[in-house]
Amino acid sequence: FGKYAPLLVAKPDIVHIHHIQILNNTLLNFFKATKIKTIVTVRGSDVLVRPFRDNKHLKFIQNVLNKVNYIHAVAKNLAQTVEDLGKPKEKIFTIYRTVEIDEIGFSKKRKATTDFYNITTIGRVHWTKGYVDAIKALNVLKSNGVNFKYHICGGYEIDLFDELNYWIRKYKLENDIIFHGHVNNQKINELLSETDVYLQCSLTEGVPNTLLRAIHFHIPIVATNAGGIPEVFVENKHGLMVDVGDFEKIAESLQLIIEDKVTLEKYSIKEISASKEINAYKNMYTKLLDINTF
C-alpha cells in the first residue's frame, strides 16, 4: 500500500472516487483494510455500455459495486442501472450535476438575418452520441430548403470519423458540416455565441455537461429523450424533445425552431445554480459519516 501513503497520513473518513475506471483490487482492498468509507460516481457509459461489452467488463463493474460502500449517480436512470447490476437501492445517491462555466468568449451576437443557420453539437465522436442520426436529420432539413452549417466539437477516433464521413458524402453535405476537433472552452463559447440551435442526438446518456452548457446560455435545443436527459431538460422551455433514433422528427423539430414556429418559455439562469448541488453533496457526506458501515 506504499503508493497510498498520503491517504494514510490524511486519514480521511470518506474517499469519493469520481471515475470508476481508476479503481482496481489493490485500491479497493486498501480502503477495506483502512476502513475508509468509499463512494464512487457513475456518469454514463461506465455502467450503461462498458459492463455489456463482455464478461470481463461485467465482472469488473460488479466487483466494484460489491466492494465500494456507496454509489453516486448523476441521474436517476443511472441509479436504476446500478441497482439492476446488484447494488442495493439504499446504497445509491442521485445528485444532478451542474456545470461550471467560464463565460469568456461568449456574447450572444447572432445576426437577426442570415443566409444560413448554425447548428452545434459538442461531444466526442462516438456511437452513443447519435451523430449518424444527426446527419440523416440534416439531410432531411437540407431537402426542405433550409441552409445551415453544422458544427461538431469533440475528439474522435479515425474509424468513427470515417463512418461519419461516409454518411456526409452519401448525402452530399461536405460543405454543410464542419469538424472542429477538440477545442478549448473559449472557442466553444465563441461557437455557442453564433449558434441558433443546439443539437443533442444521443442514443444513451447520463446527463451531458454540454447540454447543461447550452441550457445555461439559453440556446434553443433539440434533444433526444436518452437516459437522464429528460430529468434535466424541460420540453417547450429549453427546446423540443424527440424519441431516440427518430431522425425525421429531429429534422422537423430543428425546422420548427429555425423558422420560429414554436415559442419557448423564458427561464431563469438560477435554475441551474451550483448551490443546490453543493448542498446535496454536503448532505450526502453527512449522512455517510453517520452510518456505521464496518
Would you mind describing this structure in some detail?
Strand 5 (117-122), helix 6 (131-143) and strand 6 (148-153) form a beta-alpha-beta unit. This protein has 294 residues and is an alpha/beta fold. The mean pLDDT is 88. The radius of gyration is 21 Å and the shape is elongated. The chain starts with a helix and ends with a helix. The longest helix is centred in the C-terminal third of the chain and has 17 residues, at 274-290. It contains 12 helices and 10 strands. The protein folds into 2 domains: 2-98 and 275-290, 3-Layer(aba) Sandwich (Rossmann fold), CATH 3.40.50; 117-271, Rossmann fold (3-Layer(aba) Sandwich). 40% of the residues lie in helices and 16% in strands. It has helices at residues 5-10, 25-34, 45-48, 55-67, 76-84, 131-143, 158-170, 185-193, 209-216, 229-232, 247-258, 274-290, and strands at 14-17, 37-42, 70-73, 92-94, 117-122, 148-153, 177-181, 197-200, 221-224, 239-242. Helix 6 packs parallel to helix 7 and helix 6 packs across helix 11. The protein has a 6-stranded parallel sheet, sandwiched between helices. A 4-stranded parallel sheet has the order 1-2-3-4, with helices on both faces.
Global morphology:
elongated
Question: CATH-wise, what's the superfamily of the largest domain?
Answer: Glycogen Phosphorylase B
Task: Give the CATH architecture of the largest domain.
Answer: 3-Layer(aba) Sandwich
CATH class of the largest domain: Alpha Beta
Quote the average pLDDT.
88
% residues in beta strands: 15-25%
Quaternary state, please? single chain
Q: Biggest β-sheet, characterized?
A: 6 strands, parallel
Main sheet strand line-up: 7-6-5-8-9-10
Number of strands: 10
Distance between the termini: 20 Å
Q: Radius of gyration in whole Å, from Cα?
A: 21 Å
Number of alpha- plus pi-helical segments? 12
Return the domain count.
Answer: 2
Helix content: 40-55%
Elements, N to C (H/E)? HEHEHHEHEEHEHEHEHEHEHH
Low-confidence region ranges: none
- CATH fold-level topology of the largest domain: Rossmann fold
The class by helix and strand makeup works out as: alpha/beta
